Amino acid sequence: MRLDLFTMERTQCLYEHEVRFNLSESGVRPLTVDELLDDGGAGRGAADLGGLALAYPPSTGSALLRERIAAWYPGAAPGNILVTNGGSEANFTALWGLIEPGTRVAVMLPNYMQAWGLARAWAGRADAFRLVERPADATGGARWALDEDSLRRAVGPRTRVIVVTNPSNPTGHVLTEAEIETIVRVARRARAWLLVDEVYRGAEVGHAGGPEPVTSPTFWGRDARIVVTAGLSKAFGLPGLRTGWIVAPEPLRRRLCRYQDYTTLTPTALSDRLAAVAMEPRRRAALLARTRAIIAGNLPPLEAWIARHGGLFRYIRPRAGAIAFLRYDLPIASGPLFERLRRECSVLITPGAHLGTGRYIRVGFGYDIGRTLAGLQACEPVFAALRRRPDGSRGR
Length: 396
Fold this sequence. Notes:
Mean pLDDT: 94
Low-confidence stretches: none
CATH class of the largest domain: Alpha Beta
Radius of gyration: 21 Å
Number of domains: 2
Number of strands: 14
CATH topology of the largest domain: Aspartate Aminotransferase, domain 2
Order of helices and strands: HEHHHEHEHEEHEHEEEHHHEEHEEEH
Distance between the termini: 42 Å
CATH superfamily of the largest domain: Type I PLP-dependent aspartate aminotransferase-like (Major domain)
Structural class: alpha/beta
């Protein structure tokens, strides 16, 4: 078996601590342990870290953690939950258990390309269906939308799994109810499993000082062949806990445990205990409110910077996630642009080429917005040079 180079993750591993400005992060500023446990004393008491034995926790995750995760999904029970080491392991385990030799996998693009690479490795190929930009019309501004024709072309008699990310990384699109119903209907007709990565659910975009945004709908419970993955890395601001989970019908969850036995076996004792604190309903609501406040506060300054560079970028406001996906008008592909910005400006962005699409860059804005804007300002000489030289040559 040969695995494609997971270009986005490999370049982040190589350079995220080497550059001056890392704009490739797709979450919000992580909490400290003190911030997580600072809940009027209740969180610290619930964690009881000083008395925690550093033994193996239950392989599926503790009963308390699974109960609290299940409460985030209407109709789910602890028996539907398998705790993993990060959302990436949740996707890995679920795909490993679902893909069979000779079957096909349909993957939504643009996307975080883990599922694409694993599908190509285990099924031999991946079939793309797409989110596409729709221009402004009488009903509103430009928007991302599901390309239903590409979905129907991608799903055939041999399709075993359809992979969806909702809310979307990198576009920030949240599928409409009509789009969700279409995907479920196509999967049901093909008797395919739907694997839905919902790691950005809870990180919806609102406005500073405005009403709390509505939580994105979950796919869970809409059909018998739906598996949901998620974790604490994006919407919850706790990537260092490396806690993810799979929500699946109980027979499948039991079968996936056999695959997990070949990888990390269990979550860590510390992560399990701290994740249970994070997923306590009142604490969960506070963490998501924090994330939404960061997004609501940081996005307007970024949008002001984009507006000052009119004609260079085309931008559709994300509906969820601390990520802006910008289509640019420059005579250079996104991979070479990424390299120039890294080498000449010490700025790390995520190019569209690492996400299964073309002339886009993804900019994370969930950390220090002042540093984000400083990083973008550092890129301006390269943008200006490329605009002066239509062929993109020697614009340095």
